[in-house]
Amino acid sequence: MADVLSQQEIDALLSALNSGELEASDVSEKKQKVKVYDFKHAMRYSKEQLRSITRIHENFTRLLTSNLSAQLRTFIQIEIDLVEQVNYQEFIASIPSKTILNIFDVKPANGKMVMEINPQVAYAVLERLLGGQGDPTERDGGLTEIESVLLQKVFSRAFNMYESAWENIENIKVQWEAMESNPQFMQIASPNETVIVIAMRTTIGEITGRMTLCIPHLIVEPILPKLTAHQWFSTMAKTKEPKQHELLKKNLENVHVPMIAELGRGRLPVSDLLNLQIGDVIGIDTGKIQVKVDQLTRFLGNPGLLNGHYAVQIDEVIRSEGDELVK
Questions:
Q1: At what angle do helices 145-158 and 47-72 cross, to 10 degrees?
Q2: Any residues with CB less than 8 A from the CB of 285 and at least 6 apart, and which?
Q3: Domain with CATH 3.40.1550.10 in the chain
Q4: If you average pLDDT over residues 268-292, what whole number do you get?
Q5: 41-248, which class in CATH?
Q6: Can you spell out the DSSP letters for 113-166?
Q7: In the chain, which residues fall in CATH 2.30.330.10?
């Protein structure tokens, strides 16, 4: 319904027209605000989806920091600088002509993503691996074949945890595929395809640089419906506790515990012990067989045979302090 002007508003409008303060064309024309939209920079991700992607990669940076700190045995700090969506051509234009690019294959999306590593950061990693102090200030050359293999192994291990960062949203498999130094030789997406760029500020000792992760839309598209706050928190609530419980149970099942079945005990004077000969018989206390777990008696049983082998049938479980905490 159109707005109806009051008599006072009509009088003010006529007065403005008569005085020349307002033109008739200004009254008759409807002005509309036009927002410029560039189809080359299509925004495919909402702010909520970008926040979810940021949370996932914040978790990944924590895992990556722990992994690299353990491998290099030095202070490492990795923090997210920015998460944004750009087209692939802009990403290629933003990185140096000579850099270090690790390409990873992502399943089940059948796509590829890339980690661009500032050369100074890569050289600092190599310095630490090869026994140095991690100061690559005098280094400006390319990588040797041995150094390339070392970097491949470091980041292949590190990206094993990338799957863990996504596990509450999607089960993905990431595998290192290749290493490049010139971005022009790398084509993981079409020039106008939207990609997500995650820039991570990395500090290794006294050296600070960036590692930048580029994820094409092809990889993220199948899981976009899951990148909402509701889906994020409901998935975590459903999977966090059961997965931790199952993981703990699985790890405990593979623990090897020594067990000893003690048939009985006997006492002998040292003089008799020194004079023992083949065929002598030592008398022992008869009774229940004590089954010990790591030197602690936990079961009582009776001797027997099972499939032609000596065996102990458990008759009684010996409880000890703290057993009620183990379920």
A1: 120
A2: 264, 265, 266
A3: 41-248
A4: 84
A5: alpha beta
A6: EEEEE-HHHHHHHHHHHTTS-S--TT--S---HHHHHHHHHHHHHHGGGHHHHH
A7: 259-321
**What integer is the mean pLDDT of 136-154?**
75
Kindly report the length of the chain: 327
* pLDDT reported for residue 136: 57
Place 23 in a pLDDT band, splitting at 50, 70 and 90.
low
268 SS3 class: coil
DSSP letter assigned to residue 109: T
The two tokens of residue 170 are 């999607």
Half-sphere exposure of 173 (CA within 13 A, CB side): 5
Tokens 């005990």, residue located: 265
Find the range with the poorest average confidence among 101-110, 209-218, 240-249, 272-281.
240-249
Q: Please tell me the least confidently modeled range out of 84-88, 214-218, 246-250.
A: 246-250
> What's the rounded Cα separation, in Å, for the pair 240 and 233?
10
CATH class held by domain 259-321: mainly beta
Beta strands in 144-295 (DSSP E): 173-180, 194-204, 207-216, 259-262, 289-293
The Cα–Cα gap between 190 and 143 comes to: 28
What pLDDT band is residue 327 in, cutting at 50, 70 and 90? very low
